[in-house]
Amino acid sequence: MRKPDDGRIDNIIADVFRLTGTRITADDPIVAVLLMQEQSFKSAFSEFADHQAKMRTAFLEQMAAHEGNITQAAAKLEQYREQLLLDLAGQTNRQIGEVESKVYGSVSGRVTKGVETANRQLLARLQKMQFITLICVVALMLVFFVVMR
What we know:
By secondary structure, this protein is mainly α. Helices cover 89% and strands 0% of the residues. It has helices spanning 6-20, 29-105, 109-148. Helix 2 runs antiparallel to helix 3. It is rod-shaped, with a radius of gyration of 36 Å. The two termini are 56 Å apart.
């Protein structure tokens, strides 16, 4: 009389024959060893999967904790960038106010051309500063992700 694991036993017998060409029967002692080995592998893989799930959950929890820090740092950088742009705009407005009276006093093509050049340079500097700020934000995020691993 066969046990309830007949399907597993039949599969093992078929696998042994397919892989080795050796015929075994259900009452062969090697079948018991193979069943125990199969169960041992299943148990080990199950434990490994459980361990991986726990590790994944722990990692996600750590990432969630650090996500808040990264978000705060990014917000501070954004505030700093906005303040920097406001300061630069204020400085630019002051410079324009100073230059404006001179320009009105003696309108010439050379002075107008100089103001345009200064504005282009200032715009280029502002763009560079925005790019540098963006690089800093990305670098900080990368550092946080690398440190968290």
